[in-house]
Amino acid sequence: MNVNKIFEALSSAPRRRILAYLSKTDMTAGDIGKRFEMSQPAVSKHLSVLENAGIVWRQKRGQHVHYGLVQEALSATLVHFLAEVCPRSRPLRRESAAAASSKRRTRVSV
Prior knowledge:
Layout: H1 3-10, H2 13-22, E1 27-28, H3 29-33, H4 40-52, E2 56-61, E3 64-69, H5 71-85, H6 89-109
């Protein structure tokens, strides 16, 4: 999981809209393109960025390519990011680290 690629992919409003559509069901590039005022190559480029970030899957079915959301990748990245930067989680992480350190010292001294 490349956090930078995921946040780069999320930096675009059209890509966030594509993810919103894909959160409900998988769709073809054509189905997605009908919802935007942009060329099919532009839609394909956005889908490529999302796929390269690992938050969209692609599967060929007959003549069509379907795209879907990789929810686990997106949610895991966002949860990890928030845990790292959220000020409210810092005291909990320090407390947890202190408890783990205390357990290690207790085991070593016994």
